[in-house]
Design goal:
By secondary structure, this protein is α/β, with parallel strands linked by helices. It contains ten helices and six strands, in the order E-H-E-H-H-E-H-H-E-H-H-E-H-E-H-H. The structure holds adenosine-5'-triphosphate and nicotinate mononucleotide (NCN). InterPro entries: Cyt_trans-like, NadD/NMNAT, Rossmann-like_a/b/a_fold.
Amino acid sequence: MPATTSSSSPARIRRIGLFGGSFDPVHVGHRQLAECALAQLGLDELRWVVAGQPWQKERARELAPAADRAAMVALAIADEPRFRLERCELDRSGPSYTIDTVDQLQARPDAAGAQWFLLLGQDQYANLATWHRWPELLQRVELAVAARDGQPPRTSAALAAVPHRLSVLAMPPVAVSSTALRTALQGGASARSLVPDRLAAAVAQYVERRGLYHSTPARPG
Ligand SMILES: Nc1ncnc2c1ncn2[C@@H]1O[C@H](COP(=O)(O)OP(=O)(O)OP(=O)(O)O)[C@@H](O)[C@H]1O
Ligand SMILES: O=C(O)c1ccc[n+]([C@@H]2O[C@H](COP(=O)([O-])O)[C@@H](O)[C@H]2O)c1
C-alpha cells in the first residue's frame, strides 16, 4: 500500500494590519503609508480604524463629525480590496483607546490565529508611551513604523525600556498633514486644488459637497 501523503499544506497565518487615525481629513500620506505596509508586510488585509473619540486631539480642537471622517476614508480606500473600513471605535462610547480596539478585534472568531500589526508614523511612535495601557499593547501587536517629516523611526526612552516587535517601513516622504490641509481649506483654498498631491479626488469632492473645513456651514446630507 502506498504511503499516504497529506495534500493539504499547513494553513497560512493571516496577517492583519491596523491603521488608526483621526483622518480629519484622510490624505495621500495616509494612503502612501498604507500601501507601503500592504506590500512590505505582506498583509492579507489592512483595517483603517477611524478614531471615534481621539482623546488626545479632542482636547485641543473640535474635529469634523466622525461620520464624515469615516465617509472620507471609505472613499479613499474604495479601490483596494485589501483595505477595510473598521468602524468599531465609532460604535463604542468613551475615549478611543487602541488597546480596547485590539481587545475587541482579536476576540472575534475571524481573527483566530492571525498575526497583527499596528501601523504608525514616527510622530505617534514617539508618543506611544502616553497611550492607555501601552505596555500591554506592545505584547499584542507588532509595530510597523514609517518615517515622517524627515524623522526616521526612533524609539523614545520610555519605549526603549520595554521590549517590542518593530518593523520599519520604507516610505518615500510625503509632506502632508491633516492640520496643513485644514489650514489651507480654512484659508480659502478649494479642495480640488489640493488634488492629487495632497487629497484624493473623491475625498476632495466630498469635502466640497459637505462644506467641511470652511467657515461656511455644511449643506445637509
Ligand atoms: N505624511 C505622513 N507620513 C507618515 N505618516 C503619517 C503621515 N500622515 C499621517 N501619518 C500617520 O498616520 C496616522 C494617523 O494620522 P492622523 O490621522 O493623525 O493624521 P495627521 O496628518 O497626523 O493629522 P493632524 O495633522 O491632524 O495631527 C499616524 O500614525 C500618523 O503618524
Ligand atoms: O490608545 C490611546 O491611548 C491612544 C492615544 C493617542 C492616539 N491613539 C491612536 O493613534 C491613532 C492616531 O491618532 P491621531 O491622534 O494621530 O489621529 C488613532 O488610532 C488613535 O486612536 C491612541
